[in-house]
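Researcher: Please predict.
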Amino acid sequence: MKKIILMAVMALATVSSFAQHAVGTFTIQPKVGLNLANVTDGDGDIRVGAVAGAEFEYQISDIFSLSAGALYSMQGCKNNIEGVDVTTKLDYVNVPILANVYVTKGLAVKLGIQPGFNVTHKASAEKGGTKVSTDIPDVNSVDFSIPVGLSYEINNFVIDARYNLGVNKIADEADSKNSVFQFTLGYKFAL
């Protein structure tokens, strides 16, 4: 019986120490990383792009926090159409709003919503050294996605991996939605 009580006390002590930061504190996390972006309902290839920005986090309890941020995100896709390389550039300023649940010390599971505001919508085609670029018409100015991910924090460095599942169409005339795997490295500062 003593062993069971001791194990229960140790388990409760572990649960109460999952978060890296004290309850009621704010942190800011500048971050940079890599996107592997594509669009659904197409036969495009991945467009590799950068992502950079910052997120604020408020530690509500030992195992739960809320975060919000602003990230510049290079998205879109690449295609090869009849020997012509076409790159679709759809860049956004995304605003992730996430619930973070710390399942063990430093390891958080993340889920939320993410409105994104389109800042670039261009297509460029290249064949034989000749390159042509044009704006893509009728791209929706606001994009919504559901970010799902994991992060691990050690010594205030944070490695984050997310999948951003597009909810609405990129353009009214197409059925395609954004689909982005995102990997970032950040550093948390207490405020």
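Model: Residues 40 and 60 are 36 Å apart (CA to CA).
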